[in-house]
Amino acid sequence: MRVRLRSKAAAGFLLGMGLLSIGLPAAAPAGESPDSLVLQVQWFPQAQFAGYLMAREKGIFAAEGLNVEIRFSDEHTSPLTEVFEGRADFCTAWISQTLTLDRPVVNICQVLQKSSLMLVAKTESGILQPEDMNGRTVAIWGGDFSIQPTAFFRKFNIKPVLVPQSYNIDAFAVGACDVTSAMYYNEYNKIYLSGIDQEELVPFFFSDYGLNFPEDGVYCTRETYETRPDVCRKMRRAVLKGWEYAAGHQEETLDVLMDYCASYHVRTNRAHQKWMLTVVLQAVVYGVGSDPAGWGVLRRDDFRRVAEELKRQGFIQVVPAYEDFARE
Amino acid sequence: MTVMRRRSSAVKRPIVRRLIIWIGFPLLLVYAAVAVTNYVQSSRAAVERMNSYLLELTNHHAAVLDSRFKAISQTPLIIAENIEAMRLLNEPRLYDLMERRLAIDPGIFGMSISFEPYALDPGRERCSPRVFRSAGGLERAGTAGLEAYHTADWYLIPELLKSSYWTEPYYSAEGGNALMCTFSHPFFREGAFAGVVTADISLAELDKTMRGIEIISGYTFLVGRSGTFISHPNPDFVMRESLFSLAEMLDRPDLRAIGKNMIRGRQGVIAFKDLNTGEKSWMVYTPIPTCRWTFAAVIPEDRILAPVKAQLIRQVILMAMGLAGILAVIVWAAYGITNPLRKLAAFAGRISSGDLTGRIEGIRGKDEIQELAGVLNQMVGDLNQYIRDFAAATKAKESVESELRIARQIQESLLPRVFPPFPDRTEFDLYAKNAPAKDVAGDFYDFFFLDEDHLAVLIADVSGKGVPAALFMAVNRTLMKTVCRKGVGPAESLRAANEILSRDNDACMFTTMFLAVFNARTGGLTYANAGHNPPVIVSRDRTLRTLESMGDVFLGVETGVSYHEGRTRLEPGDLLMLYTDGVTEAAAPDGSFFGEERLAGFMAERRDDALSAIWGRLAADLDEFQKGSQFDDITVVLLRRNE
After folding, report:
1. d(CA A273, CA A277)
2. CA A87 to chain centre
3. Chain B residue numbers touching A17 (CB-CB < 8 A)
């Protein structure tokens, strides 16, 4: 199974990853009662998951009659595998991941509308536009994270020297590579928080180059969707309300987040989580407006763009029907 | 004494107070200025001293830490050289190599030798033998769980840089379940990158070292290459916060500036608001070059300034004591001045109240006050002398005055004072009066019969006043008695008298005189006038006649002078009035004289009164006119021929 779920979201803060498994009771049977559910998110507690955490903390899941346990992942855990193997009912994942699966899943809520994946160069490197990357050393993450860069290089007919990238930005900081991959909400700010000013950086947002791949969405198996559509609807509603709450109560959300980070020994800081929450919330409203009524939709052209790029790169042979993929 | 007490309490601004204000206050200001300047300078110097000391100290600690990093980094270099030189490589040999190194170098937590795919064993893609310290001694670890090592910083970055690299601190579960930093050195085989040799330093060990560093009441911390706290007394900071994240969270741009200086490997000393306490502090930071970390120390300024403050307090106490001493001296000196001054004031008070008996004693020294005391004593002596002299003079004057009173009595006794003088003569009435201005007057009058019918009447005014005038007058009067004889006319009598008076007149005294001889039977009147006021005659019909002067000189001025003689007649009822200039020149306070006209008016009005009543009335009028301040003798002789 081609499942690479290693989100780089908290890459700079993964020093406590071994301790994280405390929060992950192994093989807990999911869905024993219709109301008891497990939502597996891609990584450790961080602002990327603010909406789900607030839906739980503020009793929004409970109000929908759902008893949701949120489980976090480490580098060895794949949320989609957890779902397929029945240890989780729902998980968060990217379209680019779920489209390439050989088992069908259903997108019940597309939370993030904007791609946060980006490339970053230093101004001093002289890389000011995509073409400047030709022949330069570019560090990229593997798997799903390489799809957008590959499309990007092809689009501008660039032939960089590609090198693998670790969880953090040290190689970029010390000049071991000219360009690095980054999540806007995470590594980009990590670079800033290691003393490199934004003026010293040249950002390349894939979303600015016609390569907007919406990221986190909530998925379940088609089987789950077909047997328990009501639970899926409630899940979707609660998740969006959770995000709405996080958007309206950002300081409170940060307090909750920092408590989670402390319990799970995530080495992060509030300044960084604040940045992440701000940027993630921007991705929630991107293209769908600030009215929560419009949130959580997977737009057809986004879907088509991702699917066609996956097909072009040979990850899939056929573009599936939108209706088979996304349900509301 | 009550006078004195009132005086001293009237001193509203005593000299002591003024001296304290004039000397004490400026001195206090100067002291304060000196203390403040001193404090500012000493604190500056103390901060500078402390900062250079701190810089030395941090440099020292940084150097010690740096030497540890350097020592650790030697091992991978040596092993990498060995590997590059070895023809045959196998895993057991590599483990053996690492174990031997770890045995001799306790500073190394763990080591690994990691290979490019298939570089060690053509049958294995990933190969990364590792040895690390654990509770049970050295432990070997294979590649299990570390399959992705080729994307780890400790592998990737040296590969990309083609040179050695110290990683940022990281947590490794598989590599020994510890926070560590790794030194990684690449090795090459056949000219191509073939892998890395690493050695780790445990952060726990490092933190132990850091906590052992004593910095005067301050604390130390370590910051990594990206500004993250690697060691800090606040455990919440370690591996979580960086100077840059705190800069954002606390909105402290200064922290970002400091962090940027640190990651650029700079050294610095800066004033710094402490992150935990908010205290004003100083931060000294210096790079650890090998791993490009920064060692920093933070000292609260209070601690640096504590000795300076103690010194300030000592100085202030000393100055206060000095000031108190100086004030005491001022008070002492002031009382040294004011006590004698008070004595002098009291003494002067006694003098002013009339007590001249004492002397001021007990004022020592040879200063102005002592001089003043001397002068006061001298003054009292002089005053006593004056008073004695004055008393003597007064006594002398009193004796003269008493003699003058006697002379006056004698003089008065010389003038006829009984009226009517000739009670048996009915042809005329005669009245005369002298009101002297001084005790002894210069005016006189006289009348006496030369024979049965002829009555000599005279009025005179001797120049000057007092005793000389009285004596001269006595001489005159006696002389007139001699020169007026029967058959001798008034002019001749005056001439004879003048001859006598003018001769041997050393005192240069003179006399004005009107002399008339009245024939009581016929009423005929012959007269001569030696410069005297012209008499007036008031007739029955109240017309006035003046017996005008004929221009003759005073008696006693020069010899050989003859006098003219005038003749007239007193009709029955005519009243002749002789007077001295004391009447007409009687002056009112406004300076106007009584004058002849006023006299004439008075005479015309009063001519029928009894002669003594005329005098009484005239004396009263003159007194009223002069408002009681008679200047000159007033003498009047009234002669009325009866009908």
Report:
1. 6
2. 20
3. 171, 173
In order of A83, B186, B478, B568, B601, the CA distances from B508 in angstroms are 164, 152, 19, 33, 37
Amino acid, res. B557:
V
**Are the C-beta atoms of residues A192 and A153 closer than 8 Å to each other?**
no
pTM over 0.90: no
**Domain housing B505:** 418-641
Answer yes or no: are the C-beta atoms of A71 and A78 closer than 8 Å. no
Looking at B376, B392, B414, the residue that finishes a domain is B414
* Angstroms from B177 CA to nearest CA on chain A: 8
For B148, nearest residue in chain A (alpha carbons): A166
- In this structure, the answer to whether residues B391 and B487 fall within a common structural domain is no
Which chain A residues touch B156 with a CB distance below 8 Å?
Answer: 163-166, 171, 176
Got the DSSP string for B97-110?
A: HHHHHHHH-TT--E
Q: Are residues B409 and B423 in the same domain?
A: no
Closest chain A CA to residue B253: A195
Contacts of A177 in chain B (CB under 8 A): 160
Find which of A178, A193, A276 to mutate to test the B interface (most B CBs within 10 Å of its CB): A193
> Which of B414, B445, B480 lies at the terminal end of a domain, its last residue?
B414
ipTM for the assembly: 0.84
Find chain A residues with C-beta within 8 A of B249's C-beta.
Answer: 269-271, 274
Domains of chain A: 11-114+214-325 (3.40.190.10), 117-209 (3.40.190.10)
- Is B8 within a domain? no
Chain A residues whose CB is inside 8 A of the B177 CB are 18
Pair (B234, B169) in one structural domain: yes
**B424 and B286 in a common domain:** no
- The answer to the question of residue B390 being in a domain is yes
Q: What is the pLDDT of residues B485-536, one digit of tens each?
A: 888 889 999 999 998 888 877 778 889 999 999 998 899 999 999 999 899 9
Q: Which of A164, A177, A269 sits opposite B151 (nearest CB)?
A: A164
Q: Within 10 Å of residue A117's Cβ, how many Cβ atoms?
A: 28
Same domain, residue pair B393 and B536: no
Query: Binning pLDDT at 50, 70 and 90, where does residue A21 land?
Result: very low
* Nearest-by-Cβ selection for B173 from A18, A177, A274: A18
Is A186 part of the contact surface with chain B (CB cutoff 8 Å)? no
Residue B540 backbone class (left: φ over 0; alpha: ψ -120 to 50; beta: rest): alpha
Residue A255 contacts B where some CB pair is shorter than 8 Å: no
Query: Which of B148, B169, B245 is nearest residue A271 as measured by Cβ atoms?
Result: B245
CATH of the domain at B161: 3.30.450.20
Do B279 and B205 fall into the same domain? yes
Summarised one tens digit per residue, pLDDT across range A202-244 is 999 999 998 999 999 999 999 999 999 999 999 999 999 999 9
Residues in chain B: 643
Does residue B386 share a domain with residue B272?
A: no
